[in-house]
Amino acid sequence: MAFEYLYLLCFILFEFLLSSTIAQTSRNVSLNSSLTAQNNVNSSWTSPSGEFAFGLKQIVKDGFLLAIWFDKIPEETIVWSANGKRLVPQGSKVELTSDGQFVLNDARGDQIWSANSSGTGVSYAAMLDTGNFVLANRNSTYLWESFDQPTDTILPTQTLNQNGILFARYTKTNYSTGRFMFTLQSDGSLSLYTTNFPQDSRRTKYWPTGNTTNGFQVILNQTGHIYLTSKNGTILYTIISPNSNVSNENFYQRATLDYDGVLRHYVYSKSSLGMWSASPNVVPSNICAAITDKIGGGACGFNSLCSVNNEGTSCTCPSGYSSIDTNDVLKGCKQDFVPQSCDAGEASSDSFEFKDLENINMPYLDYEHVPGVPKDWCMQSCLEDCFCVVAIVNNILDCYKKGLPFSTGIIDPNIIGTKALLKIRKDNSTLTDGSPNSKKNGSVNSKKKDDSTLIIVGSVLLSSLGILNFILPLITYVVVSRIYSRKAEVVQHYQVIRGVNLRYFTYEELKQATDGFKEELGRGASATVFKGILASDKEKFVAVKSLVAKVRESDLEFNAEVSSIGRTNHRNLVQLLGFCNEGQHRILVYEFMSNGSLASFLFGESRPNWYQRRQIALGTARGLLYLHEECSNQIIHCDIKPQNILLDDSFTAKISDFGLAKLLRLDETRTTTGIRGTKGYVAPEWFKNLPITPKVDVYSFGILLLEIICCRKKFDEEVEDEDQMILADWAYDCYKQKKLHLLLENNDESMEDIKKMEKYVMIAMWCIQEEPSLRPTMKNTIQMLEGTVEVSIPSNPSYSFTSSFL
Ligand SMILES: *[C@@H]1O[C@H](CO)[C@@H](O)[C@H](O)[C@H]1NC(C)=O
Ligand SMILES: *[C@@H]1O[C@H](CO)[C@@H](O)[C@H](O)[C@H]1NC(C)=O
Ligand SMILES: *[C@@H]1O[C@H](CO)[C@@H](O)[C@H](O)[C@H]1NC(C)=O
Ligand SMILES: *[C@@H]1O[C@H](CO)[C@@H](O)[C@H](O)[C@H]1NC(C)=O
Ligand SMILES: *[C@@H]1O[C@H](CO)[C@@H](O)[C@H](O)[C@H]1NC(C)=O
Ligand SMILES: *[C@@H]1O[C@H](CO)[C@@H](O)[C@H](O)[C@H]1NC(C)=O
Ligand SMILES: *[C@@H]1O[C@H](CO)[C@@H](O)[C@H](O)[C@H]1NC(C)=O
Ligand SMILES: *[C@@H]1O[C@H](CO)[C@@H](O)[C@H](O)[C@H]1NC(C)=O
Ligand SMILES: *[C@@H]1O[C@H](CO)[C@@H](O)[C@H](O)[C@H]1NC(C)=O
Ligand SMILES: *[C@@H]1O[C@H](CO)[C@@H](O)[C@H](O)[C@H]1NC(C)=O
Ligand SMILES: *[C@@H]1O[C@H](CO)[C@@H](O)[C@H](O)[C@H]1NC(C)=O
Ligand SMILES: *[C@@H]1O[C@H](CO)[C@@H](O)[C@H](O)[C@H]1NC(C)=O
């Protein structure tokens, strides 16, 4: 976008070339006329002056747009279009039929678009010099006008009436409806809104800050003023006034809602080849600051930077990030470096550094705010926190932490004293494994390094405050030593492990069973899983999970925890068969799950059927209920996610890795980072110093349930629009708009069962409420899933899901 202020430069010079050539009459298009789309041929009907043309404009290879454009300007300037959402191929035809219908048919003759002139009495069509294309009857009464169906532009003499809408296009060269709308509503108020792309429905108003009332028409007059009038013609509100003298004789002009959400007035000198230049008076004056939607990433999408300059809106990516789609900068940016692992293994301070960005504000989506701390503290805290990617500091010693994705950073020289500290990886190359996609195969008990973490269980109070950081290790020490003394008793009984169907294996046995630990099923920071077959039962495979030596448990405690896991027994839990605790070797032996993990099942090539998915949701819920309420020691899983739900031969869901949290208590010095779990599934309590209760699993289950419903990952950069990237936001949006079918594209079965699916979405919304006490228990959840209890209308989960993602 290059807007230069040619306004002042070139308008008086060419006044003498004036209007003698502007014809007032129109060339009529008679019935039975048509235009056919043909590659490399511009077929059009032009206005008498030749300034405007109507026809099929080639936009991409074999893609044509039925449009009206400025025909004397080399720069392609389309002011109206009919089929931006669906371009037509070569051979398509726009036709004014002998009975007065005006239709666009594709090459096969299927109707793509038609003018709803209700057909009666059209006797000719005409491209007028105003840029209006009309269908008229014999008396020259207009039965249909393109001016009444504007797309993103209004021209002089064109008015936008009540209920009129301009939709921004999707990108500069993509004429599909985009993310913003300008509308004069039937109550007389005029506003710019973001839309629920691609649903076209309005969402958040971003201009004007006050209200307008009694509006009747928006007018762009001949001298370039855009204003709102009331019914009696008085000017209520000047929207844009040009900063120089403009006249229709000297200039082409237009007002366009651009794809970046800004309404601009453009002029182009008729007498010299130049370029469109925009008046610096634009609406809104600073789009970066105007878009305050909590959903979506802001004016430039997630993880981006936004600034407004003379050339328009500038969307860039901070260092370490790059554009998700270079053809669509509003889609935001993605991290280029391998994200910090939440596993204890990664020493953050060695691998990450900060890049300072001055004059910047990121007002939304912090997951933590600590007032009154120095910058160094804030940096250290962010460095040690695997969820933190940006820290914001200011003159009054606030520290804000943000996770991925973060909302657009507003760059503005007027923002003084607020600084963004961007945490980026120092050196990419030292990383050997751990790229998020390096291991995609879901398999038994597999753990991916990037997002698997083993967890502490219990009511650990997380703290971000320095004092608690100091106290916490102390508390931990006390707790741990008490556990030790208590567990010592259990161990007396261990040798027998009565009532627990656990086998003890020697290392040698397991080495044989796995053929020397040959076939690896998965690997994480804390464990590696191998496939094996036991000598005692040649029929059955087992999964042998070898825990890393770092495990700091004593023998006693290890054995005690294992037997506690071994005591659990439920159809929806992966059964622990036995273990080995020999020297350095701590190994668990589980039943083998032939159908891999729910992650590969849901996100794989073929989409599993809805019935199976419902059974899996229910099975997982039952397994969790057992862990929370029915087994002898309550177990909070803390890491419910599709990778940890495995499927047996008959696709029964089985939860794996429960109890491991306690078993694999990791390096206790890392209490500052506290959070355990997997990005995107962790409940807000983890960030807020609140006690950890079984409700954290309910939260994770809610996210999982949405993934099961939609067969989509919780966060997906590949989707069309940033509004859809975060599944939970998108789902609530669709639910609220009563457009749930949008969630289910290409998902016919669940479409048929849309009532049930709506109920499931509502249940998920309850599960992911920010306030833990609002979330149902697993028992309630099951009752709702089974239909024995009604589901009430959920409120907006409101937690900014975004703060915990990627
Ligand atoms: C177009 O058609 C109308 C109605 O038939 C007629 O009045 C008008 O003169 C025609 N204009 C031109 C330029 O032929
Ligand atoms: C339209 O074209 C068809 C065939 O090309 C012809 O039979 C018909 O008479 C034409 N009608 C008019 C109103 O010109
Ligand atoms: C069609 O129009 C475009 C721009 O308006 C121009 O660049 C192109 O040369 C034209 N093609 C033909 C075949 O006239
Ligand atoms: C054409 O469609 C628009 C929008 O759908 C509607 O407002 C208008 O009344 C229709 N006009 C006719 C003549 O049917
Ligand atoms: C055209 O105008 C005449 C006289 O004003 C009227 O009688 C006739 O019904 C009109 N025809 C149409 C098609 O509107
Ligand atoms: C325009 O963007 C939409 C939405 O991303 C996409 O579906 C469509 O294919 C694009 N059209 C063109 C011509 O690139
Ligand atoms: C603007 O209108 C909305 C809806 O009519 C109303 O809720 C709001 O309070 C109004 N704001 C002002 C500043 O008048
Ligand atoms: C356009 O509107 C402005 C502001 O209301 C007014 O000063 C100007 O005279 C108008 N121009 C025309 C040609 O009506
Ligand atoms: C026009 O309408 C506005 C409000 O709708 C009112 O304040 C004004 O007095 C009216 N002007 C005339 C000339 O009727
Ligand atoms: C616009 O034109 C008026 C009268 O023609 C003149 O007084 C004024 O200075 C001009 N404004 C600019 C910015 O050129
Ligand atoms: C870091 O490594 C990833 C994956 O190996 C690569 O795609 C990316 O471009 C690298 N980023 C930087 C900043 O070097
Ligand atoms: C996934 O498993 C299949 C079959 O077991 C194997 O061919 C493929 O190489 C594996 N892919 C990865 C990334 O490990």
TrEMBL record:
<keyword id="KW-0472">Membrane</keyword>
<feature type="binding site">
    <location>
        <position position="550"/>
    </location>
    <ligand>
        <name>ATP</name>
    </ligand>
</feature>
<keyword id="KW-0732">Signal</keyword>
<dbReference type="GO" id="GO:0004674">
    <property type="term" value="F:protein serine/threonine kinase activity"/>
</dbReference>
<keyword id="KW-0067">ATP-binding</keyword>
<keyword id="KW-0430">Lectin</keyword>
<keyword id="KW-0675">Receptor</keyword>
<protein>
    <recommendedName>
        <fullName>Receptor-like serine/threonine-protein kinase</fullName>
        <ecNumber>2.7.11.1</ecNumber>
    </recommendedName>
</protein>
<dbReference type="GO" id="GO:0005524">
    <property type="term" value="F:ATP binding"/>
</dbReference>
<keyword id="KW-0547">Nucleotide-binding</keyword>
<dbReference type="InterPro" id="IPR017441">
    <property type="entry name" value="Protein_kinase_ATP_BS"/>
</dbReference>
<dbReference type="InterPro" id="IPR008271">
    <property type="entry name" value="Ser/Thr_kinase_AS"/>
</dbReference>
<comment type="similarity">
    <text>Belongs to the protein kinase superfamily. Ser/Thr protein kinase family.</text>
</comment>
<feature type="signal peptide">
    <location>
        <begin position="1"/>
        <end position="23"/>
    </location>
</feature>
<dbReference type="InterPro" id="IPR000719">
    <property type="entry name" value="Prot_kinase_dom"/>
</dbReference>
<dbReference type="InterPro" id="IPR024171">
    <property type="entry name" value="SRK-like_kinase"/>
</dbReference>
<dbReference type="InterPro" id="IPR051343">
    <property type="entry name" value="G-type_lectin_kinases/EP1-like"/>
</dbReference>
<keyword id="KW-1015">Disulfide bond</keyword>
<keyword id="KW-0325">Glycoprotein</keyword>
<dbReference type="GO" id="GO:0030246">
    <property type="term" value="F:carbohydrate binding"/>
</dbReference>
<keyword id="KW-0245">EGF-like domain</keyword>
<keyword id="KW-0723">Serine/threonine-protein kinase</keyword>
<dbReference type="GO" id="GO:0016020">
    <property type="term" value="C:membrane"/>
</dbReference>
<dbReference type="Pfam" id="PF00069">
    <property type="entry name" value="Pkinase"/>
</dbReference>
<dbReference type="InterPro" id="IPR001480">
    <property type="entry name" value="Bulb-type_lectin_dom"/>
</dbReference>
<dbReference type="Pfam" id="PF01453">
    <property type="entry name" value="B_lectin"/>
</dbReference>
<keyword id="KW-0812">Transmembrane</keyword>
<dbReference type="InterPro" id="IPR036426">
    <property type="entry name" value="Bulb-type_lectin_dom_sf"/>
</dbReference>
<keyword id="KW-1133">Transmembrane helix</keyword>
<feature type="domain" description="Protein kinase">
    <location>
        <begin position="515"/>
        <end position="789"/>
    </location>
</feature>
<keyword id="KW-0808">Transferase</keyword>
<feature type="domain" description="Bulb-type lectin">
    <location>
        <begin position="32"/>
        <end position="148"/>
    </location>
</feature>
<keyword id="KW-0418">Kinase</keyword>
<dbReference type="InterPro" id="IPR011009">
    <property type="entry name" value="Kinase-like_dom_sf"/>
</dbReference>
